[in-house]
Structures are given as C-alpha cells and as structure tokens.
Design a protein that fits this description.
The chain is mainly α. It has helices at residues 6-13, 20-26, 38-59, 65-76, 78-87, 98-102, 109-127, 129-146, 156-166, 208-223, and strands at 173-180, 187-194, 199-205.
Length: 224
C-alpha cells in the first residue's frame, strides 16, 4: 500500500513542522524497526489528557469531578482516537513493517490511535503547548459539543434508576424469565418491571447482567 506524503497530513492538521523528521517518526510504527513512534505516543497521551481536561474544566464550570473524569475518559479512549484518525485517513500515512502491512495494520484501531497520539507528541515538541492545544481542540470540537455530562459513561440500569428517583417512582424490579443453552454458553431472558408506571420490558443476553441492561434500555425508550 503506497503511503501519502506527510506534507498532505500537515496541511490537514493545519500545522507546518519546523522539524519534519518528528512527523516522520510519529508515523513510523515499531514494526519498521529502529526509531519509531512509541516514545512520542507516550508523550502525546499525556498532552492529550492535559488539553482535554483543561477544555472540559473551562467549558463545564458546574460539573463535578467524577463527571469530568468520565467525559475526559470518553474523549481519550482508543475508539474515539481511532474515529478521528479515520477522518484524517491516518492509515494512508503510516510507515509499517511488511507483516503489519499484510495483516492490515493501517486499519487497526490500536495502531491508528497510537499514531494520532504520537502526532500530538511530535507537535508538542516541535511547536510547543499552545500549538498542540489549538490542533487538539480543533479536532475534538465536534465531539466536545455533543457530550452530555449527565449521561456519559452511565449504563442503562443506572440511568433508569436516576430517572425514576427523580420522579419519585419506586425502583424497577428485574426477574429472570428464562435461561437456555449449555452451562458454558447460557442465554438469559429478563424482565424489567416498573409497577408504579405499569411498565414491563424484556431483555436478552449472554449473561443476566447484559439482559438486565437491555431491559432497562428498553424501559428508558418507553419513558423518553
């Protein structure tokens, strides 16, 4: 797979490197051997956490520490980094060893996420904190705008409980309706009852907990 010029990526990011070799290092996976992006990824991870924490702190002046932590964790997790990397088509710029190329490493979420963090580290070393803060905030702005600190990171059972408590309605009851399958591969069917509102929903899953979460989600759908 032919790699695109790093200059194109620089223009996408809106940053011109004073030391182009830093960008090349950020794009070099360890499978290539020699100087690679692992150390830059370590640095970029810390920079990203600092920038997102500062942005959330300034945007949400009344949000508690626990909710801020959940929001930051969502922004810096692998899947979010991968989504941004895909938008940038980062896989087209990565330098990978033959084995990783053959196995599709340029599409692997962990490699794309690490590569993006390495780029943040490279920009920090090349242009300083203000520049990398500007770029991270630009990339993350669409995501930050859609974050809801009241619901992010909370599972359906917790959200349902909080919703009912806010309406002073008794908490739901969860009952196992059926269990099928072999002992090592069971399938559960669970009901969620909210007698005060005459609501009954069902959920299925490979564990009782999963089935309860599905049933709670279905109840939230009725209440919303």
């Amino acid at each position: 797979m032919p790699q695109l010029s790093p200059d194109v990526l620089s223009r996408q990011l809106g940053y011109r490197f004073n030391q182009p070799e830093l960008l090349r290092q950020a794009l070099t996976h360890r499978s290539c051997g020699g100087l690679n992006n692992e150390r830059l990824e370590f640095l970029g991870d810390s920079v990203l956490n600092c920038v997102t924490a500062t942005r959330l702190y300034n945007l949400h002046g009344k949000v508690a520490e626990g909710d801020l932590s959940r929001m930051r964790a969502h922004l810096v997790k692998e899947s979010t980094l991968n989504d941004i990397a895909v938008i940038l088509k980062l896989g087209d710029y990565l330098l990978l060893g033959e084995g990783e190329l053959k196995s599709g490493g340029f599409r692997r979420p962990s490699i794309l996420a690490d590569g993006l963090e390495a780029i943040f580290g490279a920009i920090y070393l090349d242009g300083g904190f203000i520049e990398v803060e500007r770029i991270i905030n630009t990339l993350y702005e669409p995501l930050i705008k859609t974050l809801d600190p009241k619901t992010l990171g909370k599972d359906p059972k917790t959200l349902l409980q909080e919703h009912l408590q806010g309406r002073k309605v008794p908490l739901p009851q969860y009952n196992v309706i059926a269990i099928s399958g072999e002992a090592h591969e069971q399938h559960f069917e669970v009901e969620c009852l909210i007698p005060g509102l005459d609501i009954r929903t069902l959920g299925e899953g490979g564990s009782r907990r999963t089935a309860e979460q599905v049933a709670a989600q279905n109840a939230l759908g009725i209440l919303s």
